[in-house]
Design goal:
Helix 8 packs parallel to helix 9. The radius of gyration is 19 Å and the shape is globular. Strand 4 (about 80-85), helix 4 and strand 5 form a beta-alpha-beta unit. The protein folds into two domains: about 5-175, Peroxisomal Thiolase, Chain A, domain 1 (3-Layer(aba) Sandwich); about 180-329, Thiolase/Chalcone synthase (Peroxisomal Thiolase, Chain A, domain 1, 3-Layer(aba) Sandwich), CATH 3.40.47. Helix content is about 35%, strand content about 25%. The mean pLDDT is about 95. It is an alpha/beta fold. It starts with 6 loop residues before the first strand and ends with a strand. The strands form four sheets. It has a five-stranded mixed beta sheet with strand order 1-7-6-4-5, with helices on both faces. The chain has a four-stranded mixed beta sheet with strand order 8-13-12-11, with helices on both faces. A two-stranded antiparallel sheet has the order 2-3. The protein binds oxa(dethia)-CoA. Oxa(dethia)-CoA (UT7) binds near residues 32, 36, 159 and 317. Its EC number is 2.3.1.180. Homodimer. Pathway: Lipid metabolism; fatty acid biosynthesis.
Length: about 325
């Protein structure tokens, strides 16, 4: 990416719904307890969308803040990418709904399906479009309403997920700054470890699919855990290699917020001290595509990066997929 137009993040915003679901609330719903949830995952609470809020509503709030912080309005955008596995409906895309609400007339708009890796996939896509000269200003959003696809009678999954949205404006930045490398990948063979089986063209929604709970997330937690620990390590090493950097260059590590134990294993592998790692899984749980942007934007709001800092984002999830990026802030 060396001789290309420098592209980076020029605006940030986030949104989480007001309602908080705590571990003690969940103790009243399923056979679980705060001690199990905190010790196995690090999660204490999560935010849940109101009944009248859909993914585009969360994304819209985050997008407004990102545009404001970039000093832009919707009409400045020429591309909108929404990474999500919980679009408002199968189609039109959530990105098209936003394009209208934001007044981004003429902007291209599409959703991107790469589950928890979706935001990093979206950043890579937007960066490529801008570097090629095809577009100038892109809005990239990770937004999910996982509460809508979570079975609140299944303790294996319902303690893990939350709702939220994080948005960034991607555009040209001064020389020396911006994205230095991406590493995207997939292992489709592991797709059935984390999926929603029903509601698509293979198993269309029916009374039977609903009765069999095929419209909810299924996850083989142990296998996904092993995959996550493996690819968090390999993807970070690979993206640093592509950027011509090593682990000592990393000023801030922004991992997907699924489980604090997965984050700790990556910290150990990279020998990163706590102050260089963003962890907010305790407050928001796993918000899928929103997880990395929520962590990134929160870190930015807390003043944890300064111009010139090297930020490494890495995510993994359904697909199975992974995505990592090196960004000079
Ligand atoms: O972003 C998408 C990617 N997803 C992930 O990153 C998730 C990756 N996986 C994980 O984070 C972990 O595997 C989990 C948090 C899902 C589970 O932790 P674990 O240490 O792998 O636990 P386990 O699945 O091995 O289950 C241990 C025990 C089981 O009981 P038995 O069979 O040993 O008697 C479970 O039934 O814990 C039980 N258990 C629970 N107990 C209390 C499972 N869920 C709960 C619960 N409360 N909520």
């Amino acid at each position: 990416m060396n001789n290309l137009r420098p592209v980076g993040i020029i605006g940030t915003g986030k949104y989480v719904p007001e309602k908080i679901l705590t571990n003690s609330d969940l103790e009243k719903m399923v056979d679980t307890n705060d001690e199990w949830i905190v010790s196995r995952t690090g999660i204490k609470e999560r935010h849940i969308a109101a009944p009248d809020q859909a993914t585009s509503d969360l994304a819209y709030e985050a997008a407004l803040k990102a545009l404001e912080s970039a000093g832009m309005t919707g009409s400045d955008l020429d591309l909108i990418i929404v990474a999500t596995i919980t679009p408002d409906s199968s189609f039109p895309s959530t990105a098209c709904i936003l394009q209208d609400k934001l007044g981004a007339k003429g902007a291209a708009a599409f959703d991107l399906s790469a589950a928890c890796s979706g935001f990093v996939y979206g950043l890579a896509t937007a960066t490529s479009f801008i570097q090629s000269g095809m577009y100038n200003n892109a809005l990239v959003i990770g937004a999910d309403c996982l509460s809508r696809i979570t079975d609140y009678t299944d303790r294996n999954t319902c303690v893990l997920f939350g709702d939220g949205a994080g948005a960034v404006v991607v555009g040209e930045v001064p020389e020396g700054r911006g994205f230095k490398a991406f590493d995207l990948g997939a292992e489709g063979a592991g797709g059935s470890l984390l999926q929603i089986e029903g509601g698509g063209s293979r198993l269309p929604a029916s009374a039977e699919t609903v009765e069999n709970k095929k419209h909810y997330i299924y996850m083989n937690g142990r296998e996904v855990f092993k995959f996550a620990v493996r690819v968090m390590g390999t993807a970070t090493v690979e993206v640093l290699r592509k950027a011509g950097m090593d682990r000592t260059d990393v000023d801030l590590f922004v991992p997907h917020q699924a489980n604090v134990r997965i984050i700790q294993s990556a910290m150990q592998r990279l020998e990163l001290p706590e102050e260089k790692v963003v962890v907010n899984v305790d407050k928001y749980a796993n918000t899928s595509a929103a997880s990395i942007p929520l962590a990134l934007v929160e870190a930015a709001e807390e003043g944890r990066m300064k111009a010139g800092d090297t930020v490494l984002m890495v995510g993994f999830g359904g697909g199975l997929t992974w995505g990592a990026s090196v960004l000079v802030w």
